[in-house]
Amino acid sequence: MTDKEDPKKQGKGKGKSKDVCGYPLSIFFIVVNEFCERFSYYGMRAVLVLYFRYFLQWDEDLATSIYHTFVALCYLTPILGAIVADSWLGKFKTIIYLSIVYTIGQVAMAVSAVHDITDSNRDGTPDNMTFHVVLSMVGLFLIALGTGGIKPCVAAFGGDQFSEHQDRQRRTFFSVFYLCINGGSLLSTIITPILRGQECGIYSQQKCYSLAFGVPAALMVVALVVFIVGSGMYYKAEPEGNIMLDVCKCIGFAIKNRYRHRSKQYPKREHWMDWAEEKYDKLLIAQIKMVLKVLFLYIPLPMFWTLFDQKGSRWTLQATTMNGYFGQLVIQPDQMQTFNPILILTLVPIMDSVIYPLIKKCGFNFTPLKRMTVGMFLAAMAFVCAALVQVEIDKTLPVFPSASQSQLKLLNMGSSAVTVNLTGNESLTLNAAQASDKYFTFETEQIIVSVGSPEMTQIIFLEKKSRQTLLIPSVISDEWLLTKDLTSKPEQGNNEIRFVNGMDMPVNVTTSAVDLGLIEPFYYSNYSKIKNGENKFSLSSGSQSCEYIKDFGFGSSYTFFIPSTFVFGPNCQDSITVVEDIEPNSVHMALQIPQYFFITAGEVMFSVTGLEFSYSQAPSNMKAVLQAGWLFTVAVGNFIVLIVAEIAKLPNKWAEYVLFASLLVLVCIIFSIMAYFYTYIDPSEIEVQFRKKADDDEDDKDKQQKAEIEMVRRDSAESYDDNYKQSKM
After folding, report:
1. Which end of the chain is more exposed for a tag (fewer CB within 10 A), N or C?
2. Of 14-23, 181-190, 218-227, where does mean pLDDT reach its minimum?
3. What's the CATH number for 1-241?
């Protein structure tokens, strides 16, 4: 049957699409649109929490809160999009208009990350932070409105393009559509972190968030253009009213009617929804009852999403404190999220073709609700793994001074060994050009330092809540210098380095990335950021020069001391003293793989099964209602992150992970009890029985009416006969 013969394609929404290999040509535009849109969304979201943390300079709690608020909005707006599409604009116009809003939001995010053009300072820190915050928040709101609004429309719009005889092609389309979602997610979470890791800027080299947001913005433009190009080929169904509104009105009337008659003596009704019978069809009420049974089961589900969506916030921030070297490959913290789509594409076919059939062969009735329960438990196990990883990370973190403490390290700048006595500590011998192995902690503001024989004593004044290094000169009677050291671990996997010049001549130190400048004799440079990997330093003084090469890890801090015996030349590599102030990240990112495996396995068993269960338990015209309810649980789950984290305010991250895992285990137990008492139904069979009963009732009513008519006819006939007889008498 051609489009001209297909009644579905007739009328105002008629499309002009030709079939290619049995598929409408129009769906290729929809598939490309979905791939680009998902790349745009997940690519932006992959780097979002790091943008909050390191560009806007928010703390981890605020960055996490805003991230989850944004995700929650993305799952609330689909309800609005579905209502607008089905009640007023139709799917096509809704996708077009909201995609324009979406694109504007992505462009706003890209512009919000451009700081060298709009800011006056040149140190890499945005000067007018209000501008960036406001623009990014506006951008995120528009993105949430756009991506959420088109979410319930695109897949359904693609399904509308097929005629009734193309069921097989329609099923293939949805499989390809799902593949595009995961393909776009996978590629974007690989590419945008790489773009973020690039250095860009006019005055200073900083992480390139503008590029990381700019490429997703460009992909969203492509998605919009591609969708518009296919406009003339689409079948565009007219809006026919929104079932969600009808359901809400019916439920509202039932509650209102029951409340109105609360004080009167009316017969008790079997179900509170039966109070809507005065106004609404009994079949609609029966269908709503089925939906409410499933929605009741949804009540515990948000807790799963509370844990699941933290892989893009807490887990990404956790990865910034870890070692990303995988052999020759360096993984960025936000790229760890790629394990989720990779594992999804791997685990879904394994579960469907191996695990579930094997469980069935073992005679175990692994129902959908049991699968969902196991999925929730696996998500809890993922957070137990995250807590264990965090404990290992915490073991490697330096102990910085508290508000009442000071810390001091010693560096012997001389060419001979010295013995140092510190207040409250045992004597310490430092060889030539050697630093102490650790920082000494003091509770007092001043200490006495004795050096050499005969002793040279100095009173040193220390700053509270600070780390300092005492530079002991080669000539003890010369001035002793105190440097200010770092009191926090370098972020984003960067390293902080400085040079101390112990020579009697100035030394210029440069690298390809930064210029540490000219360091005066017996003085030190400021800290400079250095990327991980091999870095080459050029040291020069007058006509003399040499190169020093150092391989850096992630999150370390070093002081490089140029001794007085330093000689420029090919052998200068071993002449520089390397002082490790903060050790690099030693816990490997590979330790996050188990938690990603458990959370993804939980997602496959919980999310995929949950959607299948909802579809099977929903009446044919109520599937959109349950889809909206499902998305609502995701939104609520993201809000729970904010509530729990704000109320708990735990000082240790591992304790917060354990708290979330414990809450999910508790909810898992509650859900398993609810699932035990749930009775599976076949909505189509119930609808058929209900219609048959309604038809039987109608037939009985017709028979009764016919009997009454026949009775009236007979009475009339008998009355006529009696009157006739009386008239003849």
Report:
1. C
2. 14-23
3. 1.20.1250.20
